[in-house]
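Build the 3D complex.
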Amino acid sequence: MTPFDPGSLVAMLSAFYPTVSTDALAQAFSERPFYFAGGSLVGAGDRLQLQDGRVFLLIYQGAWSAVGDTSNPAAAGVWDANRIAAFFVSQGVVVAPSVVQQWVGYWNLWGWKDPNYFLYRLSHAQELVDAGKATALPADTGGDGLSLDPGPLTPIDPGIQLIPRAGAVFEPLVTDHLSGLDGANAQLDTVSATVTTFDPSASADALSDGTLDGAADAHTGAQAALEGQDPGDLVTTSDGHIAVIEATRPDYDSEPPPDAPVADPGPPPPDNGGGGNLPAPA
Amino acid sequence: MDDLSVQGLTVKDESRYDRNSNGAVKERVYRFYLGKHGPFEERVSLDGFDPNTIQTRITLLRTHLQNIPR
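Done.
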């Protein structure tokens, strides 16, 4: 909805409709409805009522105007108790419902139809609070005004220890095993020194200093000794053993062991003549 | 004196139904502010369009805005 600007409306009416009359106003309303912000002409055709209820007098003393008109009965109905209460809440003051109703009565009955009446009341809001007719809303301090009531739960103290810590278990185990490795460092140092001090070039000298020179002769000697041995006597003696074994081995004459028992399968199932069985031969 | 320069100008061509002529009317719609006043909306018919029309209207509006008592 286009916002209503009284100055723009009056300037438009003055610029394009120099004759001030309700007919010209109706013509302007028809040709340029944009300036009237969705309102409607009410009363004698010289008043504009907006959708929020505000009424403006557009013809005043023979000239185009946009005067806030509160004498219109339709406008008076806008200032009801709910709107007044909401107005004061928006300004940070909560007014007792009975007081609001009283003001509405004053306003309607005694003709105090000036919206500024409530602004006047608001300007004296502190007096209302002091008189017990209104309650000031707390200042916006980051949430104090909307703080929650304490609930049934008690927050847990983060410093307490819910699960008691058991005694040290792994530390003695590690310590015991480490104690068994006492002296390992010295052994490692010895090995390290041995490895460090090993001289491969010196060890390779054994290949050339005559240490392995007799290996070939020893091999030749062993081979000759093996060739000089004849296993023929051993083979001949073994052949005679076969006859001895055949003569001394008796025939098998033990009783055969009994057969393993076989479970009785029971009687065969009766022939029901159907149910999946083959039909009886004709 | 308040600044009454044209601000926020938007121009759009629209076609609407005219009850008087019982037909469609093509218009160029100007929406703008004059300083802090507005919004204003002026429609210029594209039939026989004169680009100076809108400037004339803006000048008239500005003149009468200056005459409004503050």
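The first strand of chain B starts at residue 6 and ends at 18.
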